[in-house]
């Protein structure tokens, strides 16, 4: 009496998996047909909406970097409790935006990835430029 072992499924070398009729990429790809964060956004085959999605993730990434400098800002004329609540609120917004950026990159679209990295770079430049300018002004006086 011989029991045969079930055969393993054949190797599938495609870079997508199908979940309820929606294809999900499992590796980086280049193309405008992508879903970023919400079903149907930016839309399939619409170049203008894809460019808008790229611009949106770029601006949000810049915003995350700019919000990262908020711990250095000191609210004036408020109690410590109110100041701590303001900082906690800004931190919550920054973290929510950072997670949305992370989920956007998980679309595995190269354009989205490049827009996010460029946004973080520009935001970091803006923050560091302001800090270095402030230090240079303080040294001059």
From TrEMBL:
<dbReference type="Pfam" id="PF04145">
    <property type="entry name" value="Ctr"/>
</dbReference>
<keyword id="KW-0472">Membrane</keyword>
<keyword id="KW-0813">Transport</keyword>
<keyword id="KW-1133">Transmembrane helix</keyword>
<keyword id="KW-0186">Copper</keyword>
<keyword id="KW-0187">Copper transport</keyword>
<keyword id="KW-0406">Ion transport</keyword>
<feature type="transmembrane region" description="Helical">
    <location>
        <begin position="108"/>
        <end position="127"/>
    </location>
</feature>
<protein>
    <recommendedName>
        <fullName>Copper transport protein</fullName>
    </recommendedName>
</protein>
<feature type="transmembrane region" description="Helical">
    <location>
        <begin position="47"/>
        <end position="69"/>
    </location>
</feature>
<keyword id="KW-0812">Transmembrane</keyword>
<dbReference type="GO" id="GO:0005375">
    <property type="term" value="F:copper ion transmembrane transporter activity"/>
</dbReference>
<feature type="transmembrane region" description="Helical">
    <location>
        <begin position="81"/>
        <end position="102"/>
    </location>
</feature>
<dbReference type="GO" id="GO:0005886">
    <property type="term" value="C:plasma membrane"/>
</dbReference>
<comment type="similarity">
    <text>Belongs to the copper transporter (Ctr) (TC 1.A.56) family. SLC31A subfamily.</text>
</comment>
<dbReference type="InterPro" id="IPR007274">
    <property type="entry name" value="Cop_transporter"/>
</dbReference>
């Amino acid at each position: 009496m011989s029991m045969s072992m079930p055969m393993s499924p054949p190797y599938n070398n495609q870079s997508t998996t199908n979940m309820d009729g929606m294809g999900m990429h499992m590796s980086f790809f280049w193309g405008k047909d992508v879903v970023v964060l919400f079903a149907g956004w930016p839309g399939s085959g619409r170049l203008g909406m894809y460019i808008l999605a790229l611009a949106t993730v770029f601006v949000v990434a810049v915003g995350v970097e700019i919000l990262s400098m908020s711990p250095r800002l000191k609210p004036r004329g408020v109690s410590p409790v109110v100041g701590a609540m303001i900082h906690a609120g800004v931190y919550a917004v920054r973290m929510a935006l950072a997670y949305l950026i992370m989920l956007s990159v998980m679309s595995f679209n190269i354009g989205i990835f490049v827009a996010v990295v460029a946004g973080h770079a520009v935001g970091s430049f803006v923050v560091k430029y302001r800090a270095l300018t402030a230090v240079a002004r303080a040294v001059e006086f």
